[in-house]
Amino acid sequence: MRLASLLLVCLAAAFSSAFVISSPHMWTKLILTHHWPETFCTMEQCHPNISYWTLHGLWPDKGNDCNSSWHFNTSEIEDLLPDMEKSWPDLLNPSSSKFWSYEWHKHGTCAARAESLNSEHKYFSKALELYHKLDLNSVLQKFDIIPSEKYYSFAQIEGVIQNFYGVTPKIQCANPSKNADHQLLGQIEICFNPDFTLLDCEKHVPMKTIPMRGWDDPMGVDHPSGFSVCDNDVPVYYPPLS
Ligand SMILES: *[C@@H]1O[C@H](CO)[C@@H](O)[C@H](O)[C@H]1NC(C)=O
Ligand SMILES: *[C@@H]1O[C@H](CO)[C@@H](O)[C@H](O)[C@H]1NC(C)=O
Ligand SMILES: *[C@@H]1O[C@H](CO)[C@@H](O)[C@H](O)[C@H]1NC(C)=O
After folding, report:
1. At the N or C end, where does the chain have fewer CB atoms within 10 A?
2. Catalytic residue check, 103
3. Quick check: is 107 catalytic?
């Protein structure tokens, strides 16, 4: 009996070390999330002065707050700060590093389970690199998806992104009210494999894997008008800076 259970323990140990990559804690997908400041600020009481898609985060598909003792330290990303301020601004607290600290603790410490992202600098510089490589702002503009008073069809916006990148994005909208005749374009997610090649995002993420609260989740009960996956049949408003 004893020997059998000892054997089991050994086997389990051997297995877990042999299959580190597929361990249940290891993420298998990265989600690069962009948000549209004007839409974000209609929900969150801020006053954007930015008319381009900014970074919201780089999220592994598994895990939240993976290492509470790994504190965010601005000095580690000193060289990235000018780009961070431009590409990844904190829309709620301009010129603060709160947003970055929040994203680091919640998502970065989990992303850091992969060697390619196992430092604060690697994590933030990779997110910036992917953001610039995708260059979503130019792509939308190039295909005439520009902020305007006219409405777009959801298929048109999704089609442009899908055709250009060759993968399915996840696009989220905000509904101004329950029976509104339009929805506001709010968030665009593009997904990556662990080797940073493009990957289809699942369109309908099961509820329990939507990891967000506060910044990441304007969908909580206290935010009834938050983002959700856009409705295919409702016209999309891509609001210009007001
Ligand atoms: C937007 O406003 C913030 C805070 O007031 C300021 O630091 C930043 O330079 C402004 N950005 C632009 C593009 O005007
Ligand atoms: C958590 O972060 C601390 C500080 O960087 C580090 O020393 C420790 O090894 C990390 N723990 C895990 C489980 O990664
Ligand atoms: C923050 O990072 C800098 C540069 O790596 C380091 O010198 C400093 O000790 C760190 N501060 C803390 C509180 O860990």
Report:
1. N
2. yes
3. yes
